[in-house]
Amino acid sequence: IADVIQEAIEKLEKQASRAEAEDGEEGDDEAAQQAQETLDLLNESKQENNDRYEDQYIIQFFTEKLLSMPCQNQGFVLDGFPKTYSQAKDLFGNKEEPEDEDAPKLEYNTKLMPEAVISLDGDDEYLKKRVMNLPELVVAGTHNTEDLFLKRLTEFRMVNTDDQTVLNYFDELEVHPEHLDITADTSSNMSQVVQKVVKVVGAPRNYGPTEEERLELERIEMEKRMKKEAQEKLELQRKEEEEKKETKRRKDEWAARVKEVKEQEEEVLQAQSYPLRNYLMKHVMPTLNQGLIEVCKVRPEDAIDYLAEYLFEHNPQVD
Question: Which of 43, 96, 139, 224 is the most buried if burial means most Cβ atoms within 10 Å?
């Protein structure tokens, strides 16, 4: 009830605030004035009725809510209101005259009348025990404290006598309530009662959103998809950059290792070549250089044979 009232009040306040707009049209000014007058009446009613709104205003708010597109297209569940026979009659009763004068007037508004009515039955002792066992965090700030609950329960029993209850109203209209005994349900979270409620109400129906709601859902979905694609693109770019950096690091590391290995191999070759170089410089190169010089001077037809004869003749190891 509080949510419906709050939503209606906020709507009226929004309409009333348009009167202050400089560029408002004449129709807007009139609607804003009516909204402000309604707000004034609501405040007066609240002050005169112990900080409560009169039933006529609450029924007006509920009627507007139940006739809204979401409720008409997707359905609704009423819990906690109406509480009395008269409230139910004022809320669901048909206030419109039929277009055909010969047609009978329906006793209820077909757009507002619920398809199923469910009564969760429990005796006072069970209800008291259930409220007393509620956690303190759940009870705090609500009407379910011990004193307030007992007061509300007494008031409910007083205004709902055997012949004047909300259920009687629906019975008279051949919309027979389904009674479920909650005291017999020992399961956790009333799962047995929930299953029975689902069985009474039936399988979910796909009423579908309105055209405006569908377009809004598509817009939201497109925004989500574009945002996701942008994030995925950024993530892909980040991974590619990281892979490029990693590839470059590995190449640089490999090149450095190859260079280090080559330098080590050259050092080993240099170290291994020192004895051989020393041997050649001491025992071979002096005689060989002289032989080559002699070949260049003489220029024999068979230079190889001449050089061989020269080395044999001038071998310092042979006397």
Answer: 139
